[in-house]
Design brief:
By secondary structure, the protein is mostly beta strands. It has two helices and ten strands, in the order αβαβββββββββ.
Length: about 200
């Protein structure tokens, strides 16, 4: 499938703007009749993919936004996360580029403790857009695909004050896509740090 045209560069460029837009919206929820609580954070990390499927492109840097929200009476939060990853391998005049854009939708259980740490677990559906591009002096070929899979994860928030969080996040996603007539595992092991706003 090649129905999606969004590139990793456009996603990465838009992420800071999305985070800035989400923060005032989150703060506005404080004044709503419903007692809402949640978190919106920037994400920076790495993703490890299957070496057999991705070879020299199996170690990606990643950037994204993680969000979760719930009413205070709910036992779990709704999670919406967006993580864009990519890697570049150069060999002489040849350049290979691989990327994934993962939208993780699901639930997150945040455990309140007596300290400022709030560990969590979560999981759900992963919607993945992925692609590989091969650049050279005489040719430039690329192919992309979209697929649906799953994700599970765990981590913790560290409350710096009433509204600011730092955190650690580890998750694993699983999905398969077809690139250049080869079925490839496009999910992988994610590990990153987060910083954001709590309301």
């Amino acid at each position: 499938m090649k129905t999606l045209t969004t590139t990793p560069t456009k996603i990465i460029t838009a992420l800071p703007l999305l985070l800035l837009m989400a923060t005032p919206l989150a703060h506005a929820n404080d004044t709503q009749p419903a007692d809402w609580t949640g978190n919106v954070s920037g994400y920076l990390g790495v993703k490890s993919l299957d070496g057999d499927d991705w070879q020299e492109l199996d170690s990606h840097t990643s950037i994204g936004v993680t969000t979760d929200f719930k009413q205070s009476s709910w036992p779990i939060s709704i999670a919406f996360d967006l993580i864009a990853t990519g890697d570049v391998h150069e060999s002489g005049a040849l350049e290979d580029i691989g990327y994934t854009v993962e939208n993780h939708i699901g639930v997150r259980k945040i455990f309140k403790t007596s300290s400022s740490f709030m560990p969590y677990i979560g999981g759900g559906v992963a919607i993945v857009h992925t692609g590989i591009e091969n650049k050279g002096p005489s040719k430039n070929v690329k192919e992309d695909d979209s697929t649906v899979g799953s994700w599970v994860g765990a981590g913790t928030y560290l409350q710096i004050n009433q509204n600011i969080n730092l955190g650690l996040d580890i998750r694993y996603s699983k999905a398969e896509a077809t690139l250049f007539n080869t079925n490839r595992e496009v999910g992988g092991l994610h590990a990153g740090v987060t910083a954001g706003y709590h309301w």
